[in-house]
Amino acid sequence: MKLYALLHGTCGLAEGYSETTVRWFNDLDEAIEAKQKSLVGLMMATHEKIQSTMNGMQDIIVFNEEEAEQEILKIIPVEPVWDESWVKEYLVWNQMDCHEEWGGKYLPSDMAVVKDLCERLEAVSDEVSVETLHEFIRDLWYNGDAMFDVDDLCVYYFGVPKTKTIRVPKTKSIDNDSK
């Protein structure tokens, strides 16, 4: 089943970049409607221009072009591979470059997220704090979403909600008094 992620965030590392959020929708029309409502709210603030894609899937609101103050509203179609609730999958957002990785078509699982992060870290740093990695993995495990931010790297991993859940059959209870 296809899902639609509505991402709202600051472009690049401008003020407020750590407040990037995703809301999930089962229906594209609902996602577009929610994006339009958010856009109307953002347009109430003083802005210089709005850059929109022709297909209505993305709007960038430019508040101050000189200072690179921009916010993005973007709908990202996502097709989870696993319906099982025990297999977590993640939408990856590259905050530095302001785009979803792999076009949202590849959704890494827990271990693939750790592998992806390690490969990214190798490219930008010789040393990484174990405490920072611990915090990231804890956020991923307990919150379902996590952000990793060091030097030239800022990546979000948003947990994709599952469309189905595993149903546990009810077991019969044994009544000891009826023996």
Task: Characterize the structure shown.
The structure is a single chain. The chain is an alpha+beta fold and 179 residues long. The chain has 2 domains: 1-78; 82-166, no CATH class. The chain contains 3 helices and 9 strands. The strands form 2 sheets. A 5-stranded antiparallel sheet has the order 2-1-5-4-3, covered by helices on one side. A 4-stranded antiparallel sheet has the order 7-6-9-8. β8 and β9 form a beta hairpin. 23% of the residues are buried. The model is unreliable at 164-179 (pLDDT under 50).
Overall mean pLDDT score? 87
Number of domains: 2
Number of strands: 9
Could you tell me the radius of gyration in angstroms?
Answer: 20 Å
The biggest beta sheet is recorded as: 5 strands, antiparallel
Strand content: 25-35%
Helical/strand content category: alpha+beta
Q: Spans with pLDDT under 50 lasting ≥5 residues? A: 164-179
Strand numbers in spatial order across the main sheet: 2-1-5-4-3
Q: Could you name the key traits of this structure?
A:
disordered C terminus; 25% helix; alpha+beta; 3 helices; 5-stranded antiparallel sheet; 9 strands; 2 domains; 30% strand; 4-stranded antiparallel sheet; 179 residues
Short description:
With 179 residues, this protein is of the alpha+beta class. The chain is built from three helices and nine strands.
Give me the secondary-structure topology.
Blueprint: E1 3-10, E2 21-25, H1 28-43, E3 49-52, E4 58-64, E5 69-78, E6 90-94, E7 99-100, H2 110-124, H3 130-143, E8 145-150, E9 153-159
Antiparallel strand pairs: 1-2, 1-5, 3-4, 4-5, 6-7, 6-9, 8-9
